[in-house]
Amino acid sequence: MDLLIRDTRVVDGSGGASYRADVLIREGRIAAIRREGDPAPTAAPGARVLDAAGLALAPGFIDMHAHSDLALLRDPAHEAKAAQGVTLEVLGQDGLSYAPVDDRTLDGVRRSINGWNGGGPGDDSVDFDWRTVGEYLDRLDRGIAVNAAYLVPQGTVRMYAVGWEDRPAGDAELTRMKQLVAEGLEQGAVGMSSGLTYTPGMYAPDTELTELCRVVASYGGYYCPHHRSYGAGALQAYEEMVRLTRDAGCALHLAHATMNFGVNKGKAGELLTLLDEALDAGADISLDTYPYTPGSTTLVATLPSWASEGGPDALLDRLHDDETAERIRHHLEVEGSDGCHGVPMEWETIEISGVSDPALGGYVGKTIEESAKERGEAPWVTARGLMIADRLGSTILQHVGHEENVRTIMRHRVHTGGSDGILQGAKPHPRAYGTFPQYLGRYARELGVLSLEETVAHLTSRPAARLRLPDRGLVREGYRADLVLFDPATVAAGSTFEAPRTLPTGIPYVLIDGRFVIDGGVRTDVLAGRSVRRTPVG
């Protein structure tokens, strides 16, 4: 059935001025756009006509950094993203996801990122019936709420070929990793991710990463690193990624490109100067951010990398051992662990957002310092006990960001939006449910950090260009009808830190391939999403 959207304000994703028009959707694509004063487009008999006066029509939003790898399979509604107007998510982030794997690797990755995605031991909500990247994408193609692209996770690849050892890969192991990355790209992945403060990916030296990036470059993909520090040494870590990808001839997309912790307050401009110099010299760089100050990860991720060598069981053994646990505490609280970005731990900034064991729910919504005071013990004792009791499955909010840095970075010419949304836990970060309306409502309408047209471009055409999508990211004739209709006067994130699972307001219609995923503000039963695979070079 044709759909005729009448009298809408088209914010087309280009960044140019918006305009009024009627838009005809036919067979999943934009068939005609008729601006105000032009003859109306002709719809087929029986077409649905939608009066969109007062609403803006934009391309569907692209979430460049999502952790919905299992949520898309577990939760068909997926309202956390669909209700925001997200029509495409990029999965496989931070170097850890579920393909490519063998049985041994799958067990390790399920346990190591249980706090991000669930799916740990005893969780049978997802049937892990794939092993390769192609098989995972085929699984998505059975029908999901929104479209999804995938990055080959370098940490998982290293887990597969090398294991959990803190050492350079041998020649045969490096060859195997390069094969796994190439196979993933051939099967449809759009690039490769790393989590260089997460084990075992962080054990890779730059020479190893460069070789893998050369493979990515040969397929026209991009490298998306969570780099080695967002705290002490953050600028050096950014420079390392710029240099490494330049040497490899590989496009670079910087994941959740923040400047966090007290040592980086007011230093966003230094990061952008570094990037501008590289861009002006011909580098291919983009970045994503979320419009909030706190970060989110797992509690165990803050520990020093040496503590995790050998995998989750080895780490739990070290936490049980008093002498080794004291070494971990000293590294965390005094020296500043690499897992905590080289900054000595400030327990008052670590809020528990979720636990795997419901019996531990009393920790949720409190900082480690607050729970420690209630228990009459030192914060490290509380944190250590929680990690052991929850078998490393606890997630956290880390309150270490700076609003000035957030606003400065989001204005940059290569900025895109990414939620970094972790959907697990009783009290997740509100960015999982609110990133895109937060950009439109708070930062565009209320604060004027960006115009509405600029904001939409950041969330649509820029990420589509990075993903090399030839028919998404703009409202253009012939493009796919992945679209969102929202009210510029009322769109807002409903999610807050107190009520993070609240859906947004002011987004009444979302379409994927011309089918209504959100209709009149209500989630339909449509599962129009599919995998979006790498566009071949040439």
From TrEMBL:
This is D-aminoacylase. The lineage of its organism: Bacteria, Bacillati, Actinomycetota, Actinomycetes, Kitasatosporales. It comes from Streptomyces qinzhouensis. Coiled coil: none annotated. InterPro entries: Amidohydro_3 (IPR013108), D-aminoacylase_insert_dom_sf (IPR023100), Metal-dep_hydrolase_composite (IPR011059), Metal_Hydrolase (IPR032466), Metallo-dep_Hydrolases_sf (IPR050378). PANTHER family: COLLAPSIN RESPONSE MEDIATOR PROTEIN, HYDRANTOINASE/DIHYDROPYRIMIDINASE FAMILY MEMBER. GO terms for molecular function: hydrolase activity, acting on carbon-nitrogen (but not peptide) bonds, in cyclic amides; hydrolase activity, acting on carbon-nitrogen (but not peptide) bonds, in linear amides. Residues 48-518 form the Amidohydrolase domain. CDD domains: D-aminoacylase. GO terms for cellular component: cytosol.
